[in-house]
Amino acid sequence: MKQQQYRDFDATELFCPRCRRAVPVRKRLLLVLAQGDKYDYTCVYCGTSVGDKMVTEQSNHPLIVK
Fold first, then answer.
1. How far apart are CA 57 and CA 1, in angstroms?
2. Alpha carbons 30 and 39: distance in angstroms, whole number
3. What span, in angstroms and rounded, lies between the C-alpha atoms of 57 and 16?
4. Contact 26, 46 (CB under 8 A)
5. Would you give the end-to-end CA distance of the chain in angstroms?
6. pLDDT of residue 37
7. What are the beta bridge partners of residue 37?
8. How far is CA 39 from CA 4, 20, 50, in A?
9. Between these two residues, 33 and 1, which has the higher pLDDT value?
10. In DSSP terms, which residues pair with 42 in a beta bridge?
11. What's the pLDDT at 57?
12. Pairing of strands 13-16, 21-32
């Protein structure tokens, strides 16, 4: 059976359209949804949103909200 080597990648640099170059980014939690967590990547220099990421968990634990 083939073992999974990479579970999740996080970006360290992305292209910023305002700075017009690849820049370091900050990852912040944007939304917590039933399908998973949505993260936003922002430029460390100007704060422009340069990308997003949806992380889904493959668990069998139901979400209980009271």
1. 21
2. 5
3. 29
4. no
5. 41
6. 93
7. 32, 55
8. 23, 22, 11
9. 33
10. 26, 49
11. 73
12. antiparallel
Task: Measure the CA angle with vertex 27, ends 23 and 31; round to 5°.
Answer: 140
Higher pLDDT: 1 or 41? It is: 41
Output the pLDDT for position 21.
97
Closest CA to 56 of 8, 5, 2, 3: 8
Whether 12 and 51 have beta carbons less than 8 Å apart is answered as no
5 conformational bin, left if phi > 0, alpha if psi -120 to 50, beta if neither: alpha
Q: Are 59 and 35 in contact (CB under 8 A)?
A: no
Question: Is the predicted pLDDT of residue 60 greater than 70, yes or no?
Answer: no
For 3-48, what is each residue's pLDDT tens digit? Answer: 666 677 889 999 999 999 999 999 999 999 988 999 999 999 999 9
Using only the alpha carbons of the chain, give its radius of gyration.
15
Cα 11 from Cα 9, distance rounded (Å) = 7
